[in-house]
Amino acid sequence: TPVRLVVAGVFLAVIVVVLADQWEQAKPLLGRLSVPSVLAALALVLAGIFTTFLSWRAALADLGGRLPLPGAMRVFYLGQLGKYLPGTIWPAVTQMRLGRDYRVPPRASGAAVVVFMLMVIGTGLLVGVPVIPLLGRDAVDEYRWLVLVLPLAALAVAPPVLNRVLGLALRLARRPPLPAPLSLGGILRVAGWSIASWAFYGVQVYVLARQLGAEGGALLLLQCTGAFAAAFASGPLLLIVPAGAGVREAALLLLLGSTITAPRAAVIAVVSRLLFIVGDLAWSGVAVVVERRAGSRT
Fold it and tell me: Whole-model pTM?
């Protein structure tokens, strides 16, 4: 319990620092957005975060670590607060520890995080790369290398390849094999929920862009979705940056700048970051409440 309290305090301290930094940038720009549009964007972010949870849960279930919904929410959402610390290991470490409370083997929890993160990057590239030519010459010049990364990402999440890699890693670590290997059906479920999250996040950017005066219909929606997916997928590639802070905003500014103008893209990048912080905290609170109510009924 003392260790958990210390870790929770560190998580909250880092989140406050990130939020304060973003708030100073966003404060002079928030007046351009109406309250209904911000609330609509927040609802879309909340929906997207929930579908990412379903993607992770599908990965864990396919690996043999099935959890009831309240327990799964607690493990995932509290673990995800670790992404606000430098490095990408903290969500995995926290989820492995919390998973023990539900008798989920740590190797299954750790493997689920690996599969989940690979799928976030892979589907982000799948959604974003085809749209980059529609975002202007600067976007093409800076992100054409993602065309080479996409096939590697697709190969990395193929069940035969991923099962061999995970099995080798466990053998080198002298750990037992996974309770169950990844299946094609499981990978498709993980990918499906992940792609659904990109749809929600893309509409979020579209709502903010339209409110800021950007013009366009289906094409603008496609540009917003692809740009956000490509920008988001670049965040986990830098291991020392908490939650991709700064990376996603810079990428989104470049990818969307020539489409909806740089000032609008800057507002969207900052407001979106704030909405994700609020969304992560909100879902963490919901997870704690749901798990406690479920525990009181048993």
Answer: 0.83
